[in-house]
Amino acid sequence: MARNSTTYICVECGTSHRKWTGQCDSCGMWNSLSEEITFEQAPKGLGRDKGRKIQFVDLKGQEKQTPRRITQITEFDRVCGGGLVSGSVILLGGDPGIGKSTLLIQVVAALSRDYKCTYISGEEAIDQLRLRASRLGLGGNPVGLATTTSVRDMVTTFDDQDPPDIVVIDSIQCMFVDTIDSAPGTITQIRTSAQELIRAAKRRNFALILVGHVTKDGSIAGPRILEHMVDTVLYFEGEPSHQFRILRSVKNRFGPADEIGVFEMTAAGLNEVSNPSALFLADHHEKITGTSVFAGMEGTRPLLIEIQTLIAPSQQATPRRAVVGWDSGRLAMIMAVLEARCGLALAGVEVYLNVVGGLRIREPAADLAVAAALISSVLDRPMPGEPIVFGEVGLSGEIRAVSHMDTRLKEAEKLGFTNAILPPVRDTAETKNGKPLNTLLTLTRIRHLDDLVAHFGKPSSDTYNATKKAVR
């Protein structure tokens, strides 16, 4: 006879433990075990009963592929790889109040013109959904609304003769399977509910979008295996007090990962930002010390982003390092290289770095732009010529080439920049076998950080000593 038992399941890898421990024995994560009450049964193998044989098919099928379902929301379609694929499952995560429900209401309203769309909420009532749609001016779109948390009822509805084409579940943490004696939101319920819904989407060939809550560190709540089960994982980022939002793809089986879409939150909903570079440089002013313009790549999209730094004297034994939008460990490395290889005094000062616009930079090509902003702050001189800057910095101070150099330069040229500081050219197909890149910009190629310091002009000894004394 089955009896209740308590197990502890790791939220990262899903491994079950008989008792609570501080660290998971399987993945090594600390404080990741969650208590759940399950039915303990005798372990059973496959036994002697044989299963049915699996039928294999050719890699090249004869069926005509279903075209992607395009929402006409360009930023959303780009992040998804060109539209929604039939039978695909998308997991959308984001902080509370960031605008996940608003974005999905606009998506299903746009798709409802050509496809049968349903929006199922486990958190809001029908009147609340209608109120949001009315505020967004979408009340007349033929979107089916429902409020339920029972996965069994949903699967029964999806197995109807006329299943929907697009299904939105808001949110997966509210759903439950009635055969499991656990509360909604537990690891077992989230995993089982997602598995049943994904199976229904693959069987009935409709696109499924799951909304996921996030933890305090920004990752999607629940078992980490949930991100492996779905086809696409999207994060909706941004500060709730800031009007700009960034939709980022961290996993996509049907398109490029690390693609982003930029939106602006207004009273009428989320509006697309077709030219994010102009947005991030809207308040950029020339002749300001401690700033540089970085030509970056987010997926397949080039972006020009302003990087700001501030250096101030420190009264503490351990100077503060505050970083917003970049890796703090990489900032420490750049500062160490500038001090060891270029002789700039940065050890005893407070350093503040900010990436304008709420964007988070992840690529190492921003090293040179950060170094330029730091040098500008130390020497108290603006960058001559207002160039764009990109390149990776090594520990010996050498500047290394990065990918998509031509694309970065074309974006800068489109926005009116005339100068660029970049790494030495390398013999690749992108640079056309060592020939100069096809651009009208004035290119300044540097091989070492000393060349970047020299680009600011050699300061007088009195000025340099005064700067060192001030920051110390």
Write a structural description:
This protein has 472 residues and is of the alpha/beta class. The chain contains twelve helices and 21 strands. The protein has helices at 74-79, 100-111, 126-135, 151-158, 187-204, 225-229, 276-280, 328-342, 367-379, 405-414, 449-455, 461-471; strands at 3-10, 16-17, 33-40, 89-94, 117-121, 143-147, 166-170, 207-212, 232-237, 244-252, 260-266, 269-272, 291-298, 301-313, 321-324, 349-355, 388-389, 392-393, 399-400, 419-422, 442-445. A nine-stranded mixed β-sheet has the order 6-5-7-8-4-9-10-11-12, sandwiched between helices. Strands 15-16-14-13-17-20-21 form a seven-stranded mixed β-sheet. It has a three-stranded antiparallel β-sheet with strand order 2-1-3, with no helix packed on it. Strand 18 and strand 19 form a beta hairpin. 36% of the residues are buried. Mean pLDDT is 86; it is low at 428-435 and 460-472.
